[in-house]
Design a protein that fits this description.
The chain has a single domain, classed as Helix Hairpins, CATH 1.10.287. The chain is about 90% helix and about 0% strand. It has helices at about 5-55, 65-140. The longest helix is centred in the C-terminal third of the chain and has 78 residues, at about 65-140. It is rod-shaped.
Length: about 140
């Protein structure tokens, strides 16, 4: 059976598809880490704000402690905004990586289909040659 002439191209495309999958997985991991960081920071900020609210409900805190908690809550708010910006970048990256993976997968599937046709054509050609050979043997006998 003759080798599929695009076999090397198929292997290259499969390798590219695998790289696209790994890049997508890395972007998804980054997204998950950012979501976890956002959740932790949001929880910390909520706790800090709850502590500040407690000062308004009668708990006696020093002015320095209140100012410190306010600054901490503000830093956490700024950190949340930074995380949200990073999440927007990662979301855009995820879209690009998914698109690249779809393109790579489509290229591989097209080559696999072409390879399948090649194999089927080769099998039909072998069967036809075997039929001709049997017919030749029958005629000779």
């Amino acid at each position: 059976m003759a080798a599929f002439r695009f076999d090397t191209v198929l292997r290259i495309r499969e390798s590219e598809r695998d790289l696209c999958r790994m890049a997508l997985a890395e972007a998804q991991r980054s997204e998950a880490e950012l979501l976890a960081a956002h959740q932790r920071t949001s929880t910390e900020r909520t706790d800090a704000l709850d502590e500040l609210r407690a000062t308004h409900e009668g708990e006696a805190w020093s002015a320095d402690r209140v100012a410190s908690r306010q600054q901490y809550a503000e830093r956490l708010a700024a950190k949340l905004k930074g995380i949200e910006c990073e999440m927007a970048v990662v979301a855009e990256l995820l879209t690009l990586r998914r698109s690249a993976l779809m393109e790579a997968d489509t290229a591989v599937k097209a080559l696999e289909k072409l390879s399948g046709r090649h194999v089927a054509d080769e099998q039909r050609a072998e069967q036809a040659a075997a039929e001709r050979e049997r017919d030749d043997h029958r005629r000779a006998a």
